[in-house]
Known about the structure:
6 copies of one chain form a homohexamer.
Chain A: E1 3-7, E2 11-16, E3 27-33, H1 35-45, E4 50-53, E5 55-57, H2 60-71, E6 80-82, E7 87-92, E8 101-105, H3 121-124, E9 128-134, H4 136-140, H5 142-157, E10 161-165, H6 179-187, E11 192-194, H7 197-204, H8 212-225, E12 231-241, E13 244-252, E14 257-259, E15 263-265, H9 274-286, H10 291-305, H11 317-324
Parallel strand pairs in A: 1-4, 1-9, 2-7, 5-6, 9-10, 10-11, 11-12
Antiparallel strand pairs in A: 2-3, 7-8, 12-13, 13-14, 13-15
Helix pairs in contact in A: 1-9, 7-8, 9-10, 10-11
Amino acid sequence: MGQIITFGEVLMRISPKSNKKFIQSNSVEFYFGGTELNVAISIANFGGDVKHISAVSEDFIGETAISYIRKFGVDTTSITLSERPLGVYFLEVGAVMRPSAISYNRSHSAFSQIVPENINWENALENGSWMHWTGITPALSKGAFDTLKAGLKLARQKGMTVSADPTYRSGLWKYGQDPKEALIELLGYSTIFIGGINEINEVLGTDFGYANEDFLEASKQLMQTFPTIEKVFDKIRTSLNSSWHKIRARMWNGIEFRETQDLDITHIVDRIGTGDAFAAGLIYGLQQFDDYKALEFASAACALKHTYEGDVNLTTVKEVTNILGGNTTGRFVR
Amino acid sequence: MGQIITFGEVLMRISPKSNKKFIQSNSVEFYFGGTELNVAISIANFGGDVKHISAVSEDFIGETAISYIRKFGVDTTSITLSERPLGVYFLEVGAVMRPSAISYNRSHSAFSQIVPENINWENALENGSWMHWTGITPALSKGAFDTLKAGLKLARQKGMTVSADPTYRSGLWKYGQDPKEALIELLGYSTIFIGGINEINEVLGTDFGYANEDFLEASKQLMQTFPTIEKVFDKIRTSLNSSWHKIRARMWNGIEFRETQDLDITHIVDRIGTGDAFAAGLIYGLQQFDDYKALEFASAACALKHTYEGDVNLTTVKEVTNILGGNTTGRFVR
Amino acid sequence: MGQIITFGEVLMRISPKSNKKFIQSNSVEFYFGGTELNVAISIANFGGDVKHISAVSEDFIGETAISYIRKFGVDTTSITLSERPLGVYFLEVGAVMRPSAISYNRSHSAFSQIVPENINWENALENGSWMHWTGITPALSKGAFDTLKAGLKLARQKGMTVSADPTYRSGLWKYGQDPKEALIELLGYSTIFIGGINEINEVLGTDFGYANEDFLEASKQLMQTFPTIEKVFDKIRTSLNSSWHKIRARMWNGIEFRETQDLDITHIVDRIGTGDAFAAGLIYGLQQFDDYKALEFASAACALKHTYEGDVNLTTVKEVTNILGGNTTGRFVR
Amino acid sequence: MGQIITFGEVLMRISPKSNKKFIQSNSVEFYFGGTELNVAISIANFGGDVKHISAVSEDFIGETAISYIRKFGVDTTSITLSERPLGVYFLEVGAVMRPSAISYNRSHSAFSQIVPENINWENALENGSWMHWTGITPALSKGAFDTLKAGLKLARQKGMTVSADPTYRSGLWKYGQDPKEALIELLGYSTIFIGGINEINEVLGTDFGYANEDFLEASKQLMQTFPTIEKVFDKIRTSLNSSWHKIRARMWNGIEFRETQDLDITHIVDRIGTGDAFAAGLIYGLQQFDDYKALEFASAACALKHTYEGDVNLTTVKEVTNILGGNTTGRFVR
Amino acid sequence: MGQIITFGEVLMRISPKSNKKFIQSNSVEFYFGGTELNVAISIANFGGDVKHISAVSEDFIGETAISYIRKFGVDTTSITLSERPLGVYFLEVGAVMRPSAISYNRSHSAFSQIVPENINWENALENGSWMHWTGITPALSKGAFDTLKAGLKLARQKGMTVSADPTYRSGLWKYGQDPKEALIELLGYSTIFIGGINEINEVLGTDFGYANEDFLEASKQLMQTFPTIEKVFDKIRTSLNSSWHKIRARMWNGIEFRETQDLDITHIVDRIGTGDAFAAGLIYGLQQFDDYKALEFASAACALKHTYEGDVNLTTVKEVTNILGGNTTGRFVR
Amino acid sequence: MGQIITFGEVLMRISPKSNKKFIQSNSVEFYFGGTELNVAISIANFGGDVKHISAVSEDFIGETAISYIRKFGVDTTSITLSERPLGVYFLEVGAVMRPSAISYNRSHSAFSQIVPENINWENALENGSWMHWTGITPALSKGAFDTLKAGLKLARQKGMTVSADPTYRSGLWKYGQDPKEALIELLGYSTIFIGGINEINEVLGTDFGYANEDFLEASKQLMQTFPTIEKVFDKIRTSLNSSWHKIRARMWNGIEFRETQDLDITHIVDRIGTGDAFAAGLIYGLQQFDDYKALEFASAACALKHTYEGDVNLTTVKEVTNILGGNTTGRFVR
């Protein structure tokens, strides 16, 4: 097995403690995150060999970001330094019917100003066997889109598996590029699709609903349109409120449709990065298990992420398999 | 629209973090609160023009209190300074079946020693169109009762709307005044009644139950007894335990009885000041909407308060209307 | 009533805040605990006269431990000082389906190196009327087992009540002693059995199930085997996940079988020490009430412990009786 | 040796971290203190047998105060409970040329409302051999003054040593009593005088300067006026600024005048309670050493207090004698 | 006296506690600052009527910034909201020979993107009698430079006093404007010059040294070149290391040269904003006192700022005059 | 240049904030350290390629330790996992004349139980060019001594430079080995001696004083006794008190004696690990500069360590050379 490669922005996340707002306390905490980085760190916590590629500021904030990534054993040797500042986001964590609130400061960040010349993809992918991308990166800037494209192109040339999580966030995409066209172009390099009805509708221009039959039909159409795509994985979230969700997952791999049981997350600690945890669980799982076991693994990993503060999933293979073995009561052995 | 006026004690609230007791940690946090101040700040957070009138200590604690109130944009220019200390309360936040515990240090505070001469009501109410009072103030001292009376009298002379939240807390009322007589006198100046069966029974000497029919009959009797009162609003709390409540509200405005849906608050952050949040929602809502929409607005505002730490409701009109629009799942948009 | 005596290790518990892992933050909090100490402090919080006997390090950590115990009014005059360090455990608190994780550093601690000569039992038990032991102490080392035996022997000679909580934790018991034999020997000195099916099966070599009939039959067999045992008390925990449990309790006192209602703990703050809280409730309750009332008291005390951070139950008689009186809604009076 | 008795108010001290002001952060820390309590705890930390007598609130704040005192091994069995709140003070710690700032909330506290009937002095002094008082207690209220007098009278009847630290703080003394008369009356019961030129001038109505000759002459006059006083001890502070002081001490015991070397405190952590640390050092020292050695011990104890946060001196006999042995370089041995 | 007007960027400052680096702890604190805002808040703390004009982000970070400014009583009604994020800076506080380190994220901030149309200067200066500017604002962007120019032009038309602190920071000025030309243009509107040899050399193109004679000659040349400038004030810092400085000040007002005594700051808490504290002291002082007294006031205010954490000077007139009265020993009165 | 290898215990350091004692607060912070690890991390912060070899616990504490080391870019691939717990030490930081206090819990730790079989030295030293050892490791246990010996033997066979810091701490060395003999044996493998008069006297059995002539003569004798040793480096600390030290350094390299200037550390943040910072500075410096420049570099690095909290020196080459260039005033450039 070669190295798993992720490429994307590293953001500093700054947040008051528990459910406070910034107006309530000047004591805050920071983590680092970013959708592709979250995937990378989660896989590293499963024991995988991962490299994250990015651009960070050439100062003590960028150094702190790199040291944070290195802490989890992720390879940081292809991260490039920039005169631009690191992107930041501020988060106020909601509760019950109060939604969380986010304020971004990323539009002129080190990563958003990246250009293809900043990354030597030949070196960066030297040991790579899998590359993962998301819909956030092409939304940030033309430079980010182009740099990602260059990487994916080489990845496909090298025969690497390419997983796509084409999350569509309309608030981004401000630099003039048409989102649909960009995502279609990038999906042309991809072999695994991680995403739901919304993303499929966005790229196909369809109008599927959320039922299982819709998912199945949508997946089939997607795989017809993008023949490189072999499998489609989807995660379904049911929200009682900000503090209480249920998670299940479903898949179509061209052969069988499967769906997992609901996992009931009665007391959410932090829901940021739970989608990334699902993707990481899949990427790890598909290299270890059959498709359905990987889906179950990803679904449980996603559920566990809700119990960890910060963007990244700190869970281990042991914790996930413990749940898959039926122990969801949180009983611990001394 | 003129200025909304509140008058009441400013208390410093000191509390250990999360659910700790004082015996567990010497690291604590403080906020400021007080039932009428909570109303004022909540209205300011809705965008209202509010002035809070009070007396605070002439030292760095009093200055910190004023700066706290000013932070939210509430007018503090009628707050008077005193040689007496600011009132303090200590709070240990309960959980599940453990009730919260409170220890007050307010009986000789700056506010409780107030006398009518301390407030120039003519100046203070200059731009006022609405005045709000609660049953806490007259319970504190004769001076506080008399000062409030002087203000209400002038408010009525000026034709201001007067809302009353005659919360009856038997642990106060130590200075010899009969609570019932005092509340009756003050209700004589009032046009909006915010309170439930307990308060009505207290002032009417009746024995109504909690059913809707009782509420309706009680409201009618109240409005007969106090002809200035035009509308009665009530909030009903169902408690599973300290951490899980449901909230709904009902009203009688002389024309129609209405009741809102239950809002399920599955993970309470802080229930202090939720009644004040309801009152603030009503005062703001009645100036923007019809009576039932105001009731719904107040009920949702009250529910949201349970998600904010501290005495005051930090919610915004946008957050409240988001819930009224049916989004109670806490989903946030990036 | 004489003094209640507990004997066991004092551990320093070190834990990140809320649900964090050590890898997430270098800011942590410590408490002291240990199963028998937890019982002692809980009884002291009920107003009981308790002495805890142990060995701690002769340095500022040992002094801090003693001062922590003294803070609650527990008699520390029979604690002996040692050149060995105090035992430590590290705790990561889980949530929902994530179990808590524990790392112990106790195998060469001050207490585990104790020998019978370190404790002058004649002096230590001078005012004692009740002694409580658990299955943790004999599991730690031969010295701890022998020292406990010496104490229990004298306690019985003096006619003291002896309660046993023979918790069987297989991860301990590393010094060569057969657990079953040790527990059987110690149960020979005991008059009250606090424990469930697992512990009975362990010492009887039986295979009873968890149903009430099994419990009744198991208790009868236990009392036949150990004729000094007069009463058996058991606590039953139903776990939805790490954050949501239900607790009920049952008993057989040779005359009647009784069972309490379920108490629903919807938002667990800390489950460590809840078994000790049950034992403490029983020991206190059996000296104040009849057996069933004691069982109810213990069950409610156990439930309340889930709302307090740290190993020890900070609840009071007033809080417990408040619940027994039917108020489980956490309503507080101001 | 019998028990050392102190009598005085227990205050909760609330302070922002490091040099912050309350306006800067809502995260604060609390300790307990009070001039006589500080003396008691410091002596307990030296290993002395001490009882502190006071009145605290009958709630969780009073309980926390008692537990704090008990933590240090001070006997709390003569502390009485009151319906009045515990006194509080707020502290902003200065730095360099910025003075610290204090705000008191104590004028109607549990202790200030004490009356002689609240204390059973016969029981309280049962094992007493030494009683210590300060000029703060008689300044608070007539009740406090009378209660102290009753205690001192009995202490003298029992032949106990009585040490007086008649600190004169003009901001107190609001209840009508003439300070000079009160202090004179109380000094009539005293055998050890701990105080400087200011206090002597206050009670004698003299105008001595600060030079050694003045101190000697003033002490002689004091001992002529109050024939029970056998020894006079004085501490001299030289302040460069809020963060850098020097301390030395001098004495007249009727036989010899002695003066210690300056101790240079280059980085003050907390100067509150340093005078109490001096008194505690003397009370402990005079029972262990000759007068001059006691003076040196007290002076070093006072200097060390400047390195401990909070009101109370946490230093040990070992630390103090280490300095007296000439090691003031803070070198530690591993 | 009219309102004092400041115009400049509001920055969020994020910093680890005490002397930690970001790599050491994820727990940090934030304040708001910015050189002109620091001046505004300091003057408000002296009791002055001040308005700060700026642009902040239209989200919860911008709201928190406004509430922070409002807390101190500064008029925020001319602050404009922007879609761009608020500027941020990260600070690691040095000690002894370790310098502090700063990382800015401000180049595309709400304020740096300001254009003259964003501010209605007629309204903004309606009550203004004094306007203060610094060399930071024109360095940020052409828009900021132009907007400032528009304001200063109107201020002069209205006959307002204009104070200039043309701090020259070469790391800024990236948008193409020649710094010297910009400062010369802005000085043409100014009547008070607050700055030292470096700034004079920058704008005159001279090469003066730091001696008093140089300062005198430089000031005279400056006033010849800029005939509107009536007075020149300079602050001189002598640094032993990051933790220990001395401050004195000097002036030339066209009539007399004066110099203050050194103030010895032996334990620096925070040196950020000390120059702004000097400017604020001058602006306030020149409206209350003669020039030399104002210089002394400003110098003492500057020294006191070193004892407050954060960008802004929290000192009061009372604290400053206490020092001017000769009390630099930090003694406090209770 | 090859890899620099360090071998030694990783300790978890737990300490209250600022100058607090454990009895004062249950909120503490942890770092990781250990004399050889401190050297490794400091060199990594200078940009060196370093591997640290050790044994840590196989649990979340050991994982956190490894992640801490990895964070700084130190190679952790030769760290072995153990069933034994990680060593811990508790630290109370002193101030002024109060010494710091330390409590160790390391005698049965993962590292102290190491045996030569646990480390594959061939693999571990594969890329090594320099190995560093200290007198702590052989003092811990026979296994640690033997494992170190095996490593040093191979290092010499491979022609690696071996630096020795034979710190003699008498409180360790409890397992029966004669310290002098052990150090002599290990010095036989060493080429660089980092240590002072005390260490030389210990191994030579001499009685040299601290003057420069003594140092020179002692160094010469040392190099005669141990012919592999080519250079001797010594650091001299002058302590005013716990908070204020001076540092200078001297050397004899067989050719010339040199001594650096005193560096005045007026406000110490943390003095733990300052000797290790000196060793790291030398090891890095000797590979970059001539001997005297390396000595100066090491001395400045040591001084800078006093400004960083925790065991490890976070300083960079840039910071050190800034001081060597004469800038000791802590001025920072924006």
